[in-house]
Amino acid sequence: MSPAYSPARTTRATILIVDDEANNRYALSQVLAELEETVVEAASGEDALRFLLREECAVILLDANMPGLDGYTTAELIRRRERSRHIPIIFVSAIDRDDEHIARAYAMGAVDYVFKPVDPVILRSKVTVLVDLYRKSAEVERKAALERFLQEENLRIRQEKLEAERQLRQVEERQTAIVRSLPIALYSADVDGGFSGPRFISDVIADLVGFTPNEFLNDPHLWVDRIHPDDRGRVLNEVASIPVLGGMSTEYRWLCADGSHRWFLDRAVLIRHEGRPFEIFGSCLDVTDRRRVEQQLIQSQKMEAVGQLTGGIAHDFNNMLTVVIGNLDSLARALKGTGRNFDRAQMALTGALSCAELTRRMLAFARRQPLQPSAVNLGEVSRNITKLLGRTLGERIVIDVLVQEDLWNVLADPAQVESSLINLAVNARDAMPEGGTLTIEARNVGRDERDADLPEGEFVLLCVTDTGAGMTPEVLERALEPFFTTKRMGHGTGLGLSMVYGFVKQSGGHVKIISTPGHGTSVRIYLPRTDAAPSAGAVAGEDLSLSGRDRTILLVEDDAGVRAVTAAMLKELQFNVIEADNGARALDIVDRESDIDLLFTDIVMPGGMNGFELGRLARERRPELPVLYATGYSGSYAAPEKGADMLAKPYREADLRSKLRGLLPSCAGA
């Protein structure tokens, strides 16, 4: 019940007798006793007023003459109070019988005026009438209160109903919005029919696969027929087991209306009716993006694992190749002009250099090759390479070069840029056996046309596009994997694209391949912009001779074979050579010897001090001392300064001579 409503009272009505004489109060109480109502006595006007502050009564019998507050003043005060002003008052007086007193009594709100001694019957009759009137008034008020209560309750219930309906609509709208925003479709189907002939399928299916719910309802076999053939048998077996297992959860590929395959996570549960299998209720969630991310993660982990393996063997393998190539190079020079023996030495050298190139490519895709980045203009590189590609690509290939005016320079290793461009051109040729067009494009990429995967900064795009056969989605997905190739056995190592990918990533760039079967392939390379200008190359006809007479080189190499071959090369160039097999001994020599002109050190060495640390400590002692670093793999070491001079193993005598000419210019042409 609401606090605003109280049921009809069943208690007696209260009659208040106010008189200063106890005998009078007693006499009146006896007269009214037959009414079986509650009679309350008050000895003064003050007591009567205090009682009326707490209680309610049906009628008041008030003595006109009392000490203190007389009856007239008490009546006036009762009428002033909101709580008591409606209570009927009967004046009782023994002496005030004149009209003036009677008029005053009525003026104070009296409903009657009786004289003592009172007639019991008349008094009881008057009081009974007033009590009945009180009861009827109370009943009217009760009914009015009940009516108000019922109206308020009805209004409250209607408001609560409207609020519940509003909240329900909000929940339904929210749930509908959530379901529509998610790549998920709900469906129900017969237990016996499986995916054939669904009873219901939600509207979201149209956004996921391109077919409307009505198309599925009208064609019972649409869903099953478009499951990927490699997944169909497995999925149907799992559907058939739902009545036994009570549900299923499986992933499979599905051919959408646009011809693409998307991955779906299908979860279904069995609904029973009276204990028997009745219906399948399920949901299809598009997990294509999740699968793509998982594949990218697997690919990244695979390349990282192969990269670690490559780095682990590269150092020792390149040391061995340095010994082999260095000795064969020296032997070939000694046997030049001797005929058959020279040819054999030259063939062996060519084979060793091929091994070195294979190792270099493996390090390239693993992003662990030593780079010598500098400012490069991709437009000039593209034009120069095009001049060399004519014979390589053949007459059936038309080469088109598009270079934007005011092309930015990029920061990259020039040799790796040229190698990457040649690799992409050869791949494009192989994709166009009947001939076609090879387009090489170089243009600036502003911040407003960036690829989503590009890091922050400005880039130059080098795009190589062919009109060949293109790649299927399966081949495109694996195109950058090391050793993956679609060429027949003996034609390609599978390292071309992966080498390009590794070099570009190591240079802070990005590679993207766009290919469609029958419409060719476009390989897009993004390299970071630089404000530096390209350095001038060697001048044609420049004297490249070198003499190390009266110059001393400190050679630091832990591999005895490599150290011996390198020392022999340096001695052929007339250098004095001091050898050390680790950083600590080399540092002692730097402290002891004052006539060292250059420090030539390997990077990866045992003993707790690598080549970069040795170079830093040596330069602290002799700031002007040139340092040349040699490495077969130094992926886990940071160079002490930007632009440190490095020579990649395996190196030949010509490579070493070229580096020494730059570091010891006074030896050039001596």
TrEMBL record:
PROSITE patterns xrefs = HIS_KIN, PAC, PAS, RESPONSE_REGULATORY
Query: Which residue stretches, if any, does this entry annotate as coiled coil?
Result: 147-174
Domain Response regulatory, residue spans: 14-131, 552-664
**Xref: SMART domains:** HATPase_c, PAC, REC
**Keywords of this protein's UniProt record, alphabetized?**
Coiled coil, Phosphoprotein
Q: Which residues form the Histidine kinase domain?
A: 312-531
Protein EC:
2.7.13.3
The protein's enzyme class: transferase
A single Pfam family it belongs to is PAS_3
Whether Zinc counts among this entry's keywords is no
- The protein, known as: histidine kinase
